[in-house]
């Protein structure tokens, strides 16, 4: 019951590997207002000498105080995709028929959870009916997708559940009617495809932010598209979810951030950027490439042949020089001293961007960071931008995982830990 605030950062290192670090979990006894959180986050950044101008984005849930804190600090904020999808589903579930069917499911699952005899009878019925020997699942309001998981398991075990409850006079009323079954099947059909996307976008190990626009497009074009052979309830659920997501992701700043991330992913580029936004995104890429150009070119340095031998590795016998080596040395010295004029720099930026956009798209199952690692010398300016944008997590799952780690540290047997020790133990647990 003690309040803490953690700070987790995400970045892409020089080898184009995704990295995340939980820097601190500090005691936070102040009121959790937007002003207090904004100040706490700034102090946490300052304590690690992190510059705010290098912060690309902050991914949070939709709590009003956290949203206000990001606004007060003038930080670009990305709404958690998993939390937003969960709210869209909750909005679509507001229907009396759904309330009755889901309420019946909860009572049904509870009747088995608190009776060892019914659990035993369920297992026997599963063996008799040759059904998978799975236990029933309970809905957890704070766990994404737990409602659909509960419904799917009830539908899977419906025959076994009916067989057990039909012999119990006091529990027969919990057997779902055909109307309830139709409602549950409509919910399951609408929601089951969505959960896979939430799980896929919750990882810290690979790029996720560039998937948001393609996933939303996939929702519109196929997954949440209304079909003629579907029930009215299924169509209503799909329409409500899609309308809610379209409304919440219609913010111009959010659209621009997601477009930049997709454009810098070699799997998508400008494929999912609307026609009206292609020119602004092209202009922003050009502008940011110009700002990163000096640093990008300085990092590249002169090109060295990997087969060249250093003085320490050179054999005792003197290697005979070839005629080409004289030209290579002269070209390398000229390249090191030459500096592009503004016009040449502008032409180089335009050429690099056009070359990237005209190259073939990477397969959707390939890792874009591997592609950038191999092509960073070919696209030195764009590779810097890729590091900048592709490190953004699409969901706030990393923060939720810190909660879980904190719960494993501050257990009933360790409930008297001092705040500084909690900070150290969580730090070690998350980063080692």
Explain how this protein is built.
The chain has 432 residues and is mainly alpha-helical. The protein has helices spanning 34-47, 64-72, 81-92, 96-113, 116-129, 146-156, 158-166, 178-200, 212-223, 232-248, 252-263, 275-300, 323-337, 342-358, 368-375, 380-389, 397-409, 419-431; strands at 4-12, 18-27, 58-60, 77-79. The two termini are 26 Å apart.
Draw up the topology in text.
Elements: E1 4-12, E2 18-27, H1 34-47, E3 58-60, H2 64-72, E4 77-79, H3 81-92, H4 96-113, H5 116-129, H6 146-156, H7 158-166, H8 178-200, H9 212-223, H10 232-248, H11 252-263, H12 275-300, H13 323-337, H14 342-358, H15 368-375, H16 380-389, H17 397-409, H18 419-431
Parallel strand pairs: 3-4
Antiparallel strand pairs: 1-2
